[in-house]
Every structure is written in structure tokens, then in C-alpha cells.
Amino acid sequence: GFALGIDEQEVWDYPDGGVPEVPMEELVARVAEAMTRYRPDLVVTFWPASGATGHLDHMRMGLVAEQAIDRLRAGTGAYRGPRHIAYALTPPRAMAKLGGERGRFVVENQPAPTHAVPGNTASKLKGWEIHASQGDYVRRAYGVPARLLYLVWDKEFYAVRNLEEE
To answer: Which domain does 148 fall in, by range?
Structure first.
């Protein structure tokens, strides 16, 4: 995260692919506690039913984030959770064409985006390169190098929920 310009972050010692094995209560409590310390107005997470890429860790953490927010909203503390949740999504057309069976699963299980913003291709590529288990993920998953994929996929898509209106 620091290499990508994130000044403050926490890295928890869970193995890649192992998050679904961690007790839900442990994850929800840790995320709720972190939210209480950082007090975000906006939480960015994954859509629980698709995880943006069908990655089980992403799907689990999307659900964890929702449950942590629900816990904070129902609580009596000074911080009652964020005002918005932004779910990171994968572009449906690109995922349907390039993602194979996993892509179809993602497209069928994520909502339509409500927001699109310009992507930062250089940061994305750097992130893929420095994350040990992800270095060759795009090529393996989609059959094309990451640089080529991000030439056509130059936006980030989100479904945003306004929790104050719910």
C-alpha cells in the first residue's frame, strides 16, 4: 500500500485465499474496531456476491464490511459508521467477454454500476506487480497481459449506497 501512495494502512496476517476460513466474528470485530478508529465517511469494499473477480477473499470481506457497518449503526458509540459504501465492480462487458466462466459468474452476481471514474493504470499495474500472489493474475485469469487489459479498461466502476437514505 505504501508503494501506491497510501499513507496509513493495516496489514493483517491472513493468508491469500484463507480469509473464508477465519471466523466471521473475528473479522467483523476487527473491521468494526478499525472503522471506529479511522471514522471513515465512505467505505470501499467488494460486492459480497461477486467479489469483483469471484475471489472468495473479496466476497468474504465485502460481507464482513457490511456486517461491521450494520454493527456500528446499531450501536450506541459516538461513531455510527460511514455514510456511504462504494462497492468496487468489474466492467460487465469486459468481464463477460474476457472472464470465461468466472466472468459470467461475476456479471450475473453484481449490480449495475452507479458511478464510473477514470482509472489510474500506472498504480494498478504497480499494485499487480508488487503483490506477490497477484503478479501474473490478469494474464492467467483473462488470457491477456495486464497492460493490454488496462488499455481498454480505463475506468473504475462502483455501486454506491447512501446509508443515510436507508
So the answer is: 2-165
Residue 13 pLDDT level (bands cut at 50, 70, 90)? very high
- Is the pLDDT at 8 greater than 80? The verdict is yes
Q: Indicate the number of domains in the chain.
A: 1
Q: What is the DSSP string of the chain?
A: -GGGT-SS-------TT-GGGS-HHHHHHHHHHHHHHH--SEEEEE-TTTTTT--HHHHHHHHHHHHHHHHHHHS-SS----SEEEEEE--HHHHHHHSHHHHHHHHHTSPPPSEEEE--HHHHHHHHHHSTTTTTHHHHHHSS-HHHHHHH--EEEEEEEEGGG-
For residue 95, give the C-alpha cell: 468481464
User: How high does pLDDT run on average in the chain?
Assistant: 89
- Average pLDDT of the residues in 70-78: 97
Q: Rounded distance, CA 59 to CA 159, Å?
A: 15
13: CATH = 3.40.50.10320
Whole-model pTM?
0.89
- Give the cell for residue 138: 490478469
Mean pLDDT of 149-158: 81
